[in-house]
Every structure is written in structure tokens, then in C-alpha cells.
What we know:
- Its EC number is 2.7.4.25.
- By secondary structure, this protein is of the alpha/beta class.
- The protein has helices at about 15-25, 35-45, 55-60, 90-100, 105-120, 135, 150-160, 170-185, 210-220, and strands spanning about 5-10, 30-35, 65-70, 80, 85, 125-130, 145-150, 200.
- A five-stranded parallel beta sheet has the order 2-6-1-7-8, sandwiched between helices. Strands 3-4-5 form a three-stranded antiparallel beta sheet, with helices on one face.
- The longest helix has 17 residues, at about 105-120.
Amino acid sequence: PAAVIVAIDGPSGTGKSSTSKAVAAKLGLRYLDTGAQYRAITWWMLNNGVDVADAGAVATAAAKPSIVSGTDPERPAITVDGADASAPIRTQAVTAAVSAVSAVPEVRARMTDLQREIARSTGRGIVVEGRDIGTTVLPDADLKIFLTASPEARAARRSGELKGKEAAGLDATREALARRDAADSGRTVSPLAKAEDAHEVDTTELSLEQVVECVVTLVEQVA
Ligand code: C5P
């Protein structure tokens, strides 16, 4: 089908975003970064005085911000109440708070609805990346990929991305990643998990180009 739906899940630092954008661009598909949506709602909470450690307060506020995701793989902007939030959602303050916010069921219900709506309404097919896309958001996706990599490879990639911005040591980066993954995997509502029918790709020893080629080949088999 022309409107192929591809779900790409996995922990942080496995190359999900780079891979998903490149695959979408190569195949002329749309692209949705669901992590950016969880970051956007977290950013709004931090800016609006919501105590992110208070699940009740987060639940009450969950419906308030308007979040609009661009789906162009070359320029996937996200706006919160009309303002471009693409840069501020990447700060360490947001990264540190996002797992607590995204564990709240009301937040997940809202984001899941938004994600299904976007996936349903694109006529051209879409690559959707996240943690629970293959298991919960789009269980009928045409193709499911689960990316993994060693903790060392993931920390090295992540600290490379942060370089020059908010440079943190490799150890601190590895610890922060491990903490976030433990929270994301351990939460009650749709935790980070590999769908039974997902193709697992270990990216530790692969270049981005190799991972992209692998996924493109898998898409072409189902499209
Ligand atoms: O992918 P990224 O690292 O930007 O995701 C940020 C956070 O958003 C994750 O650590 C996780 O807490 C949350 N998330 C989620 N479900 C998704 C995508 C992201 O809970 N589908």
C-alpha cells in the first residue's frame, strides 16, 4: 500500500530519530516524533508552574496545551500554543522531567489519540518513532522495528549530540540514560517494550547508513 505505516521503537540513544527521519525522507513518507510531543507537554508544564512530581496536578493539566506536530522529515517542527518549541524541548530540564510526565495515564491517553489521528490522516504513509508505537499506539502498523544498542554506544552517541550545547561527561550521560530507560520501561501504562512481531535491529556496530538501508529494505518488503 502507498500509505505504509512504520513503527520504530527503542530506548534513547539507539539512533531512532536519525534513522526514522532518513527512512521517511528516502521513501517520501511523513515522519512523527512522539518523544517530541511528550517533551512539548513537559516543557509546557515546567513553564506553567505545574509540579511534575505531582501526578494529580499533571493529570489535571494534561488537556490544556495545544500541541501541533509537523510531519516533514526534513523539518519536523513542533508548536505549543502556537509557539515553536523545537529548541526548548531539547534542554536538560525537559529531559530530566519527561519520564515522570509521560508516565501519567491522562498524558498518555491524550498523546496516543493525537498520534493515531496524525497517522490516520496522512495519505502518504508515515514513520512514527517512540517507545510504545508498535505495542500500543499503532499495533496494526505494517512494519515494526525495535532498535537496540549497547549502553556504551548509546551514551557515546548522546553525549556527541549534546557536545557544545550542554556538554555532560560520558558517565553522567550514561547514568541519565539508564535512569530514563528504567523509568520508561518500568511504568505501568504502556512501557517501553518490544512488540512480539517487531524486527529487532542492534545498531551497536552499524553506521547510520547501514541501519537506514536495513530498515528501507524491510519497508520495501511490506509496501
Ligand atoms: O525520544 P525522546 O528521548 O525524545 O523521548 C523523550 C521521552 O518521552 C522518553 O524518555 C519517554 O519518557 C517519553 N516517550 C514515551 N512514549 C513515546 C515516546 C517518548 O513515553 N512513544
